[in-house]
Amino acid sequence: MLYIGYTLILITCTVVVLVALDKVKPKLYPYLLYGIGAGMILMTSMAGQFLVGSDIHLEYYYAQLRSG
């Protein structure tokens, strides 16, 4: 999961550089934005073995405290 996050950041930076250097046609901008946005949403919303979020650690602590 960690490598997917790094890969998405690398792809996003590459796209930004390519757009800044005018190597990407403006007609492709909506597709690039949609792809990057969907990747970021799916990266944090899909189930995985790690906790992701702002308050999930506290909720997990209380759940373990109650069930333990």
In short:
This protein has 68 residues and is an all-alpha fold.
Word description of this protein:
This protein is mainly α and 68 residues long. It has one domain (2-67). Helices cover 71% and strands 0% of the residues. The chain has three helices and no strands. Helix 1 runs antiparallel to helix 2. The radius of gyration is 17 Å and the shape is elongated.
Itemize the secondary structure elements and their pairings.
Layout: H1 2-20, H2 29-45, H3 56-67
Helix pairs in contact: 1-2
Shape field: elongated
First-residue to last-residue Cα separation: 29 Å
Structurally, how many domains make up the residues? 1
Largest sheet: none
Number of H/I helices: 3
Radius of gyration based on Cα positions: 17 Å
β content, as a range? under 5%
Relative helix content: over 70%
Features:
68 residues; mainly alpha; 3 helices; transmembrane; transmembrane helix; membrane
